[in-house]
Amino acid sequence: MNARDAILSRIIDAKEDRTYQSYKAYTSYSLPPIERFKERLAALGARTMSLDEARDRCPRPAYVDQDIAGLWGEPSTCDDIWQAAAGVTGTVCAVAHSGTLLVTAGTGRKRMASLAPPVHIALVDKIVLTLDQAMRLVPQQTSVLVTGPSRTADIEGVLVNGVHGPGQLCVVILEDCVVEDTASGG
Amino acid sequence: MSSRVDTFARSMPTATAARVRRATRLVADKRMPTLSSVFADPEAARTAAADTKRYVLDNLHRLLLEFERNAIANGIQVHWALDAAEARETIVGICERSAPKWSIVAKAKSMATEEIHLNEALFKAGYPPVETDLGEFVIQLDHDTPSHIVAPIIHKDRFQVARSFERAHVGPYTQVPTELALQARHYLRKQFQASKIGVSGVNFAVASTGRIVIVENEGNNRLSTTAPDVHIAVMGIEKLLPTEDDLALFLPILAGSATGQQITTYVHMVTGPRQGAETDGPREVHLVLLDNGRTDAMASEQRDILKCIRCGACQNICPVYRAASGHGYGHVYGGPIGAVLAPSLDFAANRELPFASSLCGACEEVCPVKIPIPDMLVDLRTKSTAAGSWAMFATGATNPNLWRAGLALTPWLGGIGAKASGWAEFRDPPKGQGDFRRWWRERA
Ligand code: SF4
């Protein structure tokens, strides 16, 4: 018998057919969702700025994902992601409650764009209220939830940003950004 | 009292003990405020997490098949391994097929790979692993072993890290943690760029989508699993969740319990290798599903220990762990989780560990999946006592004062467990290509 069959033969499922209890009641907050999102980002050590400001201050050379190059206003000037001073990406959505960004892979995008350069600039055009709402929007491709800059507390519990991933996270909430509440399955 | 643990606690330098105590308390104090800032009712969240994991164990056969089918459809190559040796063989085999000898393996922190002592096997096979998590990197340079399942160098201070980095030519001596971290960043960048293979663990595997989910804060895990051409992930068969929706509960409850964060910085949801016209990401993703004693544990009284999500909260709160650190247990899993899991996976080698507890019950109170650790320890003690003459330890350990007194007694048996559980072997310098440190110096 191979390992697979041997392991499976040793696991016998319970007969009773029951489901399980889940729990996704998060704390409520009084701020409007966009303000809550900004507040969380600030607490995490990420910055928010306008598109113009981000473009002005973006360190060069920058790698820019193809699918948002039009929005960003200039094409990528650096395709070697290890050499890029900044990576500019879009997002599937952001989460107001936790300050999280949902970034996904796919044609015209690099998985390393939000990871290898010291600065990650993320453009946001949709904000959902809570993590469970975001989980329903995760695309079929490999995806990542990003909450704040890269960090470590391995040395004496001292917080250090930028140990392997970007030490600076810069979030642009686009002017036509929508806030969606899909709580009632909408 | 367990001799292995108390002997160690007695020999631990006061400064190390103070560091472990301080660091564990720091994280333990953040747990409840963080969970309360995320969940309207943290207690209800724990109840639901426990119920979800119970469901997973009750339906594991079906969920494993569902997961396997979906993972394969995503392009992940799924392997099964009955024990540590089989897992190591499988992984070495993948390395040999995908990269020339002496290719570097970028290694992300993973308890499953610690459990199967993968690093030494990789080194012997000619695929030197480089630990890329900051703490694990220090551990590797120092020939040490992790002392905590979440914070591997909880027993070290900045000065020790600085001396290790200086010795290994990672960077000049500095006492500033930020500078040390950036030295590691700079140094490990080159390893990521050179590595052909990346090895990681898995935090959750989602049955309904066939995705594997890995959480971290540093970004080294994403780099290890994205930059190299081949990604090999290793996971215990119990790590399943039914749907992605369940992550909305499990991601915050894991982060809150482990580090006092609302969610980890990165949650990498790996569907599979690069697709279509993608220009980066691994070309192959392999997943090794590991039994290594888990199906035995499933059929035992300790079945519920397989609910564990490796958050380390029970270690942070445990008075015995705080006095002995993870090293005291002589097994990769130390603290309350280890005192149950180690003997559940391998009873003969670890049957004294269930005595390393005062049964104060703090671990069960903080456990995000409500594992009744104290009850299990009592059961395991009975089993241990029946298997040998361990009654004297039981008396000492159930009474905190006697336990403390026990710290000053009974040094016999000290190294036996450590040897049997494979740590003695693990602590020896890797053989074959000479000493790891020398190899490191030469290539640095
Ligand atoms: S036993 Fe519970 S508290 Fe301990 S590591 Fe596992 S999940 Fe966390």
Write a structural description:
The complex is a heterodimer of chains A (about 190) and B (about 450). Chain A is an alpha/beta fold and about 190 residues long. Chain A has two domains: about 30 residues; about 150 residues, NagB/RpiA/CoA transferase-like (Rossmann fold). Chain A has five helices and ten strands. In chain A, the strands form two sheets. In chain A, strands 1, 2, 3, 4, 5, 6, 7 and 10 form an eight-stranded mixed sheet that branches. In chain A, helix 4 links the parallel strand 2 and strand 3. Chain A is globular, with a radius of gyration of 20 Å. With about 450 residues, chain B is of the alpha/beta class. Among the domains of chain B are: about 250 residues, NagB/RpiA/CoA transferase-like (Rossmann fold, 3-Layer(aba) Sandwich); about 45 residues, no CATH class. Chain B has 24 helices and ten strands. In chain B, the strands form two sheets. Chain B has a six-stranded parallel sheet, sandwiched between helices. A four-stranded mixed sheet of chain B has the order 8-5-6-9. In chain B, helix 20 packs across helix 21. The longest helix of chain B has 25 residues. Chain B starts with a helix and ends with a helix. About 10% of the residues of chain B have low confidence. At the A-B interface, helix 1, helix 5, strand 7 and strand 8 of A face helix 2, helix 3, helix 4, helix 8 and helix 10 of B. Iron/sulfur cluster binds next to helix 14 and helix 16 of chain B.
